[in-house]
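An example makes the point: we print one protein in full, the chain in one-letter code, the fold tokenised, without further comment:
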Amino acid sequence: MADEPVQAASKEAADGGQGGGGKRNMVLGGILAGVMLLEGVGLYVGMKMFGAGPEQATAEEGLVDKAQKKISERPEVPIAKLKVPNRKTGKNYLYDIEVAATIIVPEGKTTDEFKAEITEQLKARENSIEDRLSFLIRSANPQELDEPGLVTMRRQIKAELGKIFNDEKLFDEVLLPRWTPLRADM
């Protein structure tokens, strides 16, 4: 007789503690899923009824011509040819480089006229340009000098040229047609 309450408690625990509670959970889960489905259908129908469709995008006339004109108005100008040592790795390397750049021609000037003007300014500032470029290469870390695209060196050269000319936006892209490291201490 004393064992009957213990057996009843163990049967109740084996059933999950709730007599018929599994069906109640299934019904609540079904109601919740139904409400979510109705909400999704309602949003879809509401967006279809009240939402505007996509608008047609139109291009401004002459936009293609302007873009082609801007690209063609970026002449290349030779900047400098240098041979500069770098000893940052403990080994002596001599970098034989050639630097050129594309320039942005301002509105109202012809390409040839502006290119000639910049070339004259480059000749007038030749020594300061070579000094700054030499300093950049002599003080550069080996990782910067060995980058596949020389991105860091291009960015630094462009910044130095902008400082020399007092115009950060004059030079569009720095070109390095020759960048040859030569071992000098063999």
